[in-house]
Design goal:
Strand content: 15-25%
Structural class: alpha/beta
Number of helices: 16
Largest sheet: 6 strands, parallel
Radius of gyration: 26 Å
Distance between the termini: 59 Å
Helix content: 25-40%
CATH class of the largest domain: Alpha Beta
Number of strands: 20
CATH architecture of the largest domain: Alpha-Beta Barrel
Number of domains: 2
């Protein structure tokens, strides 16, 4: 950068740090914070009294009973943690039968309490349930010694002996009977939500939202999900790209990376190779920006125009490459849909596909965009054709051939972020229409007419696998309603 160029613009600290590190070849890897849960066995040890009731329901009545049950819980949690496909930190099981013990436990360093409600009275339950944290209750029917709260979790704990629910921070979906698989998917949802809340996202060209209805989207993302949106101007980006393109060492590394990518038999090149090499340079610029901002998430506004002249390629392929590496990378800077992508990514532990939907009909909808990742299962790259970006007929954009018959989760956020719609679908075909390059025909599992009536917003978010339960559970924790169109199919 010349002194004149540097003086023409006051560069942000993020861009300055990125510029200083451009020559480096290593980057901070994407990370997921673990969910940290505290399991607690709640019980009592009653004393026999003559001619009156002296014990409540339940098989945990002595310290010996509690010690055996604590060991069973420890074993079952270890088995559950061993199969968890997300970062999960389960603390040692604690026993609790006094309010003083409960007060100490609830203030610990954890995201919430997993209550094993064998016995004890309501004051213990309420003391351990901090509404500012995420809490679950587990009760036994047949999976071990029967628990008192298998009888009274609903009427005493959740409803306080009246008809209306009255326990802050807990509802019927937070109570699990017998099945630790049911605990696990709830924890997966909470782990996803933990990593979504407060997420820092770099917004090249500023944060935005699609259409008239999306004007409030950045503010809603900040307010509902606590997201930190960091603006990087295009003037700053242009100077960083210019510096990168003048760095012969960086350019050579990117040329070699492009060679390695294109050498795969599953990759077909159908555009100018120079576009691909420059796409790898732009990917490096994005990584340096994320490193400098201490985040692993980025989005590009005005990606169908402004960025092309300065990068001499398109952002399509860099965003695809970043998603395959575990980063969060979105086109269009549309914060109507980006929170759903962040949440779904962290729930599923897989790349997600931001897409344009078409008009659903006869149980089918076509989804398309030019930035699809290839490692949609999180591991194996799908076959891809590297073409131009459709609307500009310029640059490098992937046409990813998605797996036929693959189950999909599809999320449809609304402009006001009040109720998201979702459904399970299946990949029917990978057509090659004159639309965005990565395109799939999706079989809708649910009623098409209901989908037509309930569609809001514009962009959708899609990923491999079925994560509807987790999505709905997480959304309720932030006050967003959820409509699952595939609930009865």
């Amino acid at each position: 950068m010349t002194a004149a160029a540097a003086g023409a613009l006051v560069l942000s600290p993020t861009v300055l740090r990125a510029a200083k590190a451009l020559g480096a070849s290593t980057h901070q890897p994407p990370t997921r914070k673990p969910l940290r849960m505290q399991p607690v066995l709640i019980y009592e040890t009653p004393t026999r009294r003559e001619h009156t009731s002296w014990r409540s329901w339940g098989a945990i009545q002595t310290e010996a009973d509690a010690e055996q049950e604590q060991a069973l819980i420890r074993r079952q949690l270890a088995e559950m943690q061993a199969v968890a496909d997300f970062p999960l930190d389960v603390l040692p099981v604690k026993r609790c039968k006094t309010v003083a013990q409960a007060k100490e436990i609830v203030t610990g360093d954890h995201d919430g309490v997993l209550l094993y409600a064998a016995g004890g009275w309501l004051d213990l339950q309420e003391q351990l349930t901090d509404p500012k944290k995420w809490n679950l209750m587990f009760v036994r029917h047949r999976s071990g010694p029967v628990y008192l709260w298998y009888e009274i979790a609903h009427n005493r704990y959740l409803r306080k002996t009246v008809d209306e629910f009255g326990q802050p921070g807990m509802d019927v979906m937070d109570v699990v009977v017998d099945n630790h698989d049911e605990v696990l998917w709830r924890l997966r949802a909470l782990a996803g939500l933990k990593n979504t809340l407060g997420k820092k996202i770099l917004a090249i060209g500023g944060p935005s939202g699609w259409g008239e209805g999306g004007r409030q989207a950045p503010e809603l993302a900040r307010r509902q999900f606590g997201m930190e949106l960091v603006d990087v101007s295009y003037e700053e980006l242009a100077r960083l790209i210019e510096k990168a393109q003048a760095d012969t060492g960086l350019v050579e590394r990117c040329r070699q990376a492009a060679d390695d990518y294109l050498a795969s038999p599953d990759v077909s090149l159908e555009t100018d190779r120079d576009f691909v090499e420059r796409a790898f340079v732009l990917t490096e610029v994005f990584k340096h920006l994320m490193d400098a901002a201490a985040t692993d998430a980025i989005t590009v506004n005005h990606c169908m125009g402004t960025i092309m002249g300065m990068s001499q390629t398109t952002a399509c392929m860099p965003l695809s490459l970043l998603n395959d590496e575990g980063y969060l990378a979105f086109c269009e800077s549309d914060f109507v849909v980006i929170p759903s992508g962040v949440l779904l990514h962290y729930i599923a532990g897989k790349p997600v596909f931001l897409n344009d939907p078409t008009y659903p009909y006869e149980g089918t909808v076509t989804l398309a965009h030019c930035t699809a990742p290839r490692k949609l299962d999180g591991r194996t790259p799908e076959k891809v054709r590297i073409l131009t970006h459709f609307e500009s007929d310029y640059g490098a954009a992937p046409k990813v051939e998605m797996r036929l018959g693959q189950t999909l989760t599809n999320l449809i956020p609304d402009f006001n972020s009040r109720r998201w719609v979702g459904f399970r679908g299946t990949v029917k075909a990978n057509p090659f229409l004159d639309i965005c390059r990565s395109q799939i025909d999706v079989a809708i599992e649910g009623d098409t007419e209901t989908l037509l009536r309930e569609m809001k917003g514009f962009h959708w978010m899609t990923c491999y696998g079925d994560y509807r339960r987790e999505t709905g559970y997480a959304l309720k924790k932030v006050g967003i309603d959820w409509l699952d169109l595939s609930h009865r199919t």
